[in-house]
Automatic annotation (TrEMBL):
Name this protein carries in UniProt: Dynein regulatory complex subunit 7
Annotated Gene Ontology cellular component terms: cytoskeleton; motile cilium
Cited PANTHER family: DYNEIN REGULATORY COMPLEX SUBUNIT 7
Keyword Coiled coil on entry: yes
Disordered, as annotated region: 1-23, 321-345
Biased composition (Basic and acidic residues): 336-345
Naturally occurring in which organism (per UniProt): Papio anubis (Olive baboon)
Ranges of residues in domain Dynein regulatory complex subunit 7 MORN: 368-650
Gene from which this protein is expressed: DRC7
Residue stretches of biased makeup (Acidic residues): 321-335
Length: 809
């Protein structure tokens, strides 16, 4: 280390001496050369370089007040129309008016921010903001209402923060000019050992930072909550104002174009308004926004509150009360005001932008390329166009636990056009709980399905649309040992059924639940109040204890009582071990009655009640078994639906609906054939032969016979020619097939698999053509005599050949 240090000191001393010599030589050169040359050839030492760097860092470059511009890398300006690249004389006049208006505004209101009047467009041409708007009526009913239109615009837009959040401008990128003279960097004299020690120290620091990551995140969250926003109220934002009055709008409200949400003008998030504009005029807010936008009056015709730029015929009228309106009665003043307006009025030029054209594909795609990703704090929202994903996924919201968005908490997925009516899927990554939400129309009337696994006899909750089910089932909850069902609107007033199971003695596959159902231990059923029965005879709850062979009943409580009647039956077999019939005894029924009655104490009544309960117990066990089978069927159906994830396609969607397309093509083919058939029937078969005779001359008997014979002979020859043509094509196809088969027999050994596939494909197509030609030939032979007889009959009945009818009369 001693030697290294001495060597470094020697090198530094030599470098200082060399720098001193250069500085002395530079001073002598300054006296001999011009100032400009001396500045270019000045050589800086290391100390001078540090001083220069320090001075340059202290200089603050002011932001130039240039007009906003767009970058050209994303827009091909060569394809834009002329209106984008130049200004008309009227637009130039408007820009001069805007500049004059801006100067007056800056002089009268020096404390307010400059107006946003004429930014540069894509071609770097200044355009007034009102001329960038062009009202267009689109052929889509979804865009006629503000909510669906705002949602469409928000899906298409992508938010990009401004470089300067305080000014609505996009600065041009300054080109870095190449430097003619460069400074040689100083020599690196750092020690490698010190660098290695520094690397080790950095690794230790990173390890400590990883251990304290959670604590730092918590502190960061607290700091974010407590830290005030230094730019609160200074950021620039634009949104849409909808005024009340037209199209049944009851009150004014705002629309945020990036989210598509509406907000009241009393919302505290909107701190103030600088200016408004539409396609007709430009207004400046002259009201104080100390209370946000709550106290603003949006009467654009009031020049005291809203200063307008253009004095034209399209400016808004001032809303006056009856008292103010009664004060304006002087007709001369009105005429003078009208003359002043005519002198100073200036109409807004037509918009320079092209008319908005949205194709059906672009309207359906909405987001750019059909997909849009929006990143939020601890959340990410993804959107897709309908039918872009094969499973119908249109939106996904992912919520994260940390700020880096690495640990997922939950996922929500929205679907459209699903045949299984799946609308929403909610996945909780913490509990691994999945919840599916369905629209009405599912084959099993599903509404909600919550589960952790698709295996049967696991924890799940299934909710149904009760109006679509006959049994009135609303919800079914299932675990490994229980099943609970809730009902509504049943004729037997059943509202609740709970079944307890015990493990199977022999473990079988889960798919064998149909053949080996779970043993039932207990069934509990509850009922709504039946107003047709007295409360002491209307059962509120009954419990079938199958393992203990007992049945418990609890009746509804009367309004004037504080307790309800109860009854318990000991269910025994009907015969004993010897085959003797068991007789009903008093100890087989234990009851508590609030108001005892004589007929309930009789053994016959108790025996009939117990026999009825036995039948009900058997029916309840069967219904529980059917419920298990229904769960298996639902799970099997859901697995098939998730594997297929088929989508529904409207019959009016001619692009995707293959069945509708095939049906439409078949109908067009039938209509075309029908048209050809009508054209054939409308042909005049005697026209070529009648053209040989003088026009207007009446046919003689001999001429009529000759025309008939010539027409039939010509038609017969046409039939023969058609048959010969079909026969010739048939023979040609047969010969080509034979030649191909002979070629295959000769070269069968040397053929490759591709050649064999081509040969088989050719043979298949050739056999198909031969079969079709054979069918056409046979059909022609069958129909030719019939067509000949039909033509002969038409000739006999033709009024132009009336002489033939006289011959055969």
């Amino acid at each position: 280390m001693e030697v290294l240090r001495e060597k470094v000191e020697e090198e530094e001393e030599a470098e200082r001496e060399e720098a001193a010599e250069r500085a002395e030589w530079a001073r002598t050169e300054k006296m001999m050369r011009p100032v400009e040359v001396r500045k270019e050839e000045t050589t800086l030492t290391q100390e001078m370089l540090r001083d220069l760097e320090k001075k340059l860092s202290e200089i603050q470059i002011p932001i130039s007040a240039e007009l906003p511009a767009f970058t050209k890398d994303t827009i091909d300006i060569s394809k834009l129309p002329v209106s984008y690249k130049t200004n008309t004389p009227k637009e130039e006049h408007l820009l001069q008016v805007a500049d004059n208006f801006s100067r007056q505004y800056s002089h009268l209101c020096p404390d307010r921010v400059p107006l946003f009047l004429h930014p540069l467009n894509e071609c770097e041409v200044p355009k007034f903001v009102s001329t960038t708007l062009r009202p267009t009526l689109m052929p889509y009913p979804e865009l006629y209402n503000w909510d669906s239109c705002a949602q469409f615009v928000s899906d298409f837009l992508t938010m990009v923060p401004l470089p300067d959040p305080l000014k609505p401008t996009v600065q041009k990128e300054e080109k870095v000019l190449p430097k003619k003279y460069t400074i040689r960097p100083p020599r690196d004299l750092c020690s490698r050992f010190e660098q290695e020690q520094e690397v080790k120290k950095q690794q230790e620091i990173r390890a400590q930072e990883k251990k304290q990551l959670r604590e730092e995140e918590e502190r960061l969250m607290e700091a974010e909550k407590a830290k005030p926003d230094a730019l609160h109220g200074l950021r620039v934002h634009s949104w849409v104002l909808v005024l009340s009055g037209k199209r049944e709008v009851p009150e004014n409200f705002f629309i945020d174009a990036f989210t598509g949400h509406s907000y009241s003008t009393q919302d505290e998030r909107f701190l103030g308004i600088e200016s408004l504009w539409n396609h007709k005029n430009y207004w400046i807010n002259m009201q104080d926004c100390w209370n946000c936008c709550k106290d603003l009056i949006f009467d654009l015709g009031d020049p005291v509150r809203w200063e307008y730029m253009l004095l034209g015929t399209d400016k808004s009228q001032l809303s006056l009360t009856e008292e103010d309106d009664s004060g304006i009665n002087d007709e001369d003043d009105v005429e003078n005001l009208g003359k002043e307006d005519e002198d100073k009025s200036f109409d807004m030029p037509h918009s320079w932008v092209e008319q908005i054209e949205i194709s059906p594909e672009a309207f359906e795609t909405r987001c750019p390329n059909g997909k849009k990703v929006i990143q939020y704090k601890r959340a990410k929202l993804e959107k897709w166009a309908p039918y872009l994903n094969s499973n119908g996924l249109v939106s996904r919201l992912t919520t994260y636990e940390d700020l880096e968005c690495t640990n997922i908490l939950e996922i929500k997925e929205w679907y459209q056009n699903r045949e299984d009516m799946l609308e929403l899927k909610h996945i909780n990554k913490t509990t691994d709980l999945k919840t599916d939400y369905f629209k009405p129309g599912h084959p099993q009337a599903l509404r909600v399905h919550s589960y952790k696994s698709m295996q049967p006899e696991m924890d799940r909750v299934i909710e149904f649309y009760e109006m679509a089910r006959v049994d009135g089932l609303i919800k079914r909850e299932e675990t490994a040992r229980t099943m609970t069902e809730y009902y509504q609107g049943r004729p037997d007033f059943l509202s609740y059924r709970h079944a307890n199971f015990r493990p199977r003695v022999k473990k079988l596959a889960l798919s064998s639940a149909e053949s080996n159902p779970r043993p039932i231990v207990k069934i509990t059923e509850q009922f709504f109040r039946n107003p047709a029965k007295p409360a002491e005879e209307d059962v509120a709850e009954r419990v079938f204890l199958l393992a203990e062979e007992r049945i418990q009943l609890r009746y509804h409580c009367r309004d004037d009582h504080i307790t309800a009647s109860k009854r318990e039956f000991l269910r025994r077999t009907e015969v004993d071990s010897k085959g003797n019939k068991i007789i009903m005894t008093p100890d087989m029924c234990i009851s508590f009655e609030v108001e005892p009655m004589e007929h309930t104490k009789k053994l016959l009544y108790q025996y009939e009640a117990m026999m009825h309960l036995k039948r009900e117990e058997k029916l309840s066990r069967h219904q529980v078994w059917e419920s298990e089978l229904e769960v298996l069927e639902i799970l099997k159906l859901r697995e098939e639906e998730e594997a297929a994830h088929a989508l529904t396609i409207s019959i009016y969607d001619t692009k995707r609906n293959e069945k509708s397309k095939e049906y439409r093509e078949a109908m067009e083919r039938v209509m075309h054939e029908e048209h050809l058939r009508q054209v054939e029937t409308q042909l005049d078969y005697l026209a070529p032969f009648l053209a040989q005779l003088p026009p207007g001359e009446k046919l003689t008997r001999w001429q009529a016979v000759r025309l008939k014979d010539e027409c039939l002979s010509d038609f017969k020859q046409r039939l023969i020619n058609k048959a010969n043509l079909i026969q010739a094509r048939f023979e040609k196809e047969t010969q080509e097939l034979q030649k191909k088969q002979q070629w295959y027999q000769e070269n069968q050994v040397t053929l490759t698999p591709e050649d064999e596939d081509l040969y088989l494909s050719y043979c298949s197509q050739a056999m198909f053509r031969i079969r079709i030609l054979e069918q056409r030939l046979n059909r022609h032979k069958e129909l030719a005599p019939l067509k000949y007889l039909a033509l002969e009959e038409k000739l006999y009945k033709d009024p132009r050949l009336g002489e033939l009818q006289k011959i055969f009369a």
